[in-house]
Amino acid sequence: MQSMFEQLLKRLSPVEQKLTLELMKWDEPVSRKNLLQTLNLSSMDLINGLLSLQQRYLVTQIEQDEVLFNLSPVFKEYLRVDSPQVN
Question: How far is the C-alpha of 4 from the C-alpha of 78, rounded, in Å?
Answer without folding.
Answer: 11
